[in-house]
Amino acid sequence: MTEKAAPAPLARTVLQQCLHARLQVAPPGPESEAEWVQIDRGMVIYVCFFKGATEDMLPKMVSALLNQRLCERASGGLASVLELRGSVLVVPQATLGGRAKGRAMQYHGNIGKDDGLRLYLRFVSLCQAQLQAAGGAAPSAAGGAGAEGAGAEVKHGTYGNRQVLKLDTNGPYTHLMEF
User: Fold this and answer.
1) How far apart are CA 166 and CA 20, in angstroms?
2) With contact defined as beta carbons under 8 Å apart, do 89 and 44 qualify?
């Protein structure tokens, strides 16, 4: 009896709980400082979409990611980022789609840039909506959701650009999930 191969994933994510994360979303310019977004306790989600990914898969994907019990409670045990009322930093990570060929990496299976941007922005929007529905802060402009000091929020990086990430983690609780 032969086993059927699992279907190829349409998205790959890496989840990492954090105590604090800071992402540079714009480099410094000749007359400006670098622009950063940051979160405190919560989860960093790195996401990559593959060819064939559609918006239809995003609600289930976001629900699965935000409801995974991967964050440590102060009292012990694990909680989801929603239960913890933690924040979320979403980082576009096309390199998660890389495949080694010889000594080089190839990214032929990744979704095109325009479709990837559309899916990424919808993914962030759905994360914001779920966090808000769970009692997090209301959406706002400037890279995320939440008023200053309002607790849980969603922040995100810029799609298709190199970014600098600074991360303090209490793990290493790092998990790979494919959809």
Assistant:
1) 8
2) yes
